[in-house]
Design goal:
Protocatechuate 4,5-dioxygenase, Chain B; globular; six-stranded mixed beta sheet; 10 strands; 10 helices; 254 residues
Length: 254
């Protein structure tokens, strides 16, 4: 059975950037093999209540500005999967979580940037799920738990966000990691490995520098979604940083 995964997608230019996280994601897809389908919860689709997309073919949403033209030329036209979208909706509804379907939305860069590195042929069906950035960690753990059974059907459950994500504190490439980002990441790693769910759910008040590391929470919620969807075995797959504080950590919940 596939693990649930959390990956940090970093800057939209990650496919072009010569950084360790790019090479990690390329190797990750090869190591996992080919799932039947992928369900991805991305930080860049933030809605008041859960939404799932159901399309024949996913469009590529370039939801950013001011980057090189070559980035806007990238396309990731993975097929959708309407039966999987319906299954996701049914499981969430059964868990008492309201859900709606979007029949037009494609994949934002939080989804297609890591997937283009993991599975560059864009041949695996992809369904995207929204996050609720103001609903908190416990909500997203429950969201993941409601969908954990998909892993038994060879569906890769993937959360895509950022382990530390403060765009106002970015530094030039090659800058050292600041102490506050390192201390926050170390605390989160320790609590994850201990499966300290109460501390994880309360990270906002317990973790050092939590508000500095995650000024808004949408980029952290995919981590808790993957945690909820996974099993008892937790493994940190990757740890690095770019632009000083932008942490690119990845975890498997098997």
């Amino acid at each position: 059975m596939l693990p649930a995964l959390f990956v940090s997608h970093g800057a939209p230019t990650l496919p072009f950037d010569d950084v360790p996280a790019r090479d990690f994601l390329r190797d990750l897809g090869r190591g996992l093999g080919k799932p039947r389908a992928i369900l991805v919860a991305s930080a860049h689709w933030d809605t008041p209540a859960p939404m799932v997309n159901a399309v024949a073919v996913n469009s590529t949403i370039h939801d950013f500005r001011g980057f090189p033209r070559s980035l806007y030329d990238l396309r990731y036209a993975a097929p959708g999967n309407a039966p999987l979208a319906a299954d996701v909706s049914s499981r969430l509804a059964a868990a008492g979580l309201p859900v709606r379907t979007d029949g037009a939305r494609g994949l934002d860069h939080g989804a297609w940037v890591p997937l283009s590195l993991m599975y560059p042929k864009a041949e695996i069906p992809v369904v995207q799920l929204s996050v609720q950035g103001r609903a908190g960690a416990a909500h997203h753990i429950a969201l993941g738990r409601a969908l954990a059974g998909l892993r038994q059907d060879n569906v890769l459950v993937l959360g895509s966000g950022g382990f530390v994500h403060n765009l106002g504190r970015l530094e030039p490439p090659g800058s050292p990691e600041p102490d506050w980002a390192r201390e926050f990441s170390a605390w989160m790693h320790d609590r994850l490995m201990a499966r300290d769910e109460a501390a994880l759910a309360g990270y906002r008040r317990l973790a050092p520098h939590a508000v500095l590391a995650q000024p808004s929470e949408e980029h952290f919620m995919p981590l808790f979604f993957a945690y909820g969807a996974g099993g008892d075995k937790i493994e940190r797959l990757h740890a690095s940083h770019t632009f000083g504080s932008l942490r690119m950590d990845a975890y498997a919940f098997g």
